[in-house]
Amino acid sequence: MADENETPQVADAAPEATEAAPTEGRGPRGPRGGRGGGNRDGRGGGRGRRDDRRPREDDGEELIEKLVHINRVSKTVKGGKRFGFAALVVVGDGKGRAGFGHGKAREVPEAISKATAAAKKAMVRVPLKDGRTLHHDGLGHFGAGRVTVRTAPAGTGIIAGGPMRAVFESLGVADVVTKSVGTSNPYNMIRATFEALKDQTSPRSVAQRRGKKVSDLLGRGGLNQAEAEAAAEAVTE
Listed GO cellular component terms (predicted)? Predict the structure, then answer.
């Protein structure tokens, strides 16, 4: 009978111990809601808020993002192989501004985000004729790659392959003829393409640099005065 009376006492003491454990365990819960946890969560949350604010700078314009190439590399370490990824991204607004960037990370999404951020910082403006094609032909050279870009009439479309097509689509060019020789490396092709685009000039910028009228420059191309003035008024950039 004595043993039967002691057993309920032990059983009653167990719930008291379990109920007291959470009160005594406020120390482990304290860092999450206390001062230490606030610092850790604050630092982590702060970085997330800054990353979220970056796209808000471009809320006024819609950017076109093109993933051109992803390269996977591996490094042999003591425990095995360590994989990494490199991404090449082209970004443009479809209205004459474009840029490219590359990023490296252990994961593909992080590499793409790094490349996109780098491309947004390196965007350049290219003057377009009638908002659809280039003003004149151009040549670009980088490394072993040589690129030729040529203006084209309406309805031609984008005659370009691989990485070069991504550049013109993000740039907003609708009619262009291109040729790439010497290399198929997407990095060199992209760089050579942007070297050719950086040399593009518009009649308005040339006229301002030389202190002349746009109609005077267009008149040298075989147009009469009336046609040159009409063409000069049509030039928007």
Answer: cytoplasm; small ribosomal subunit
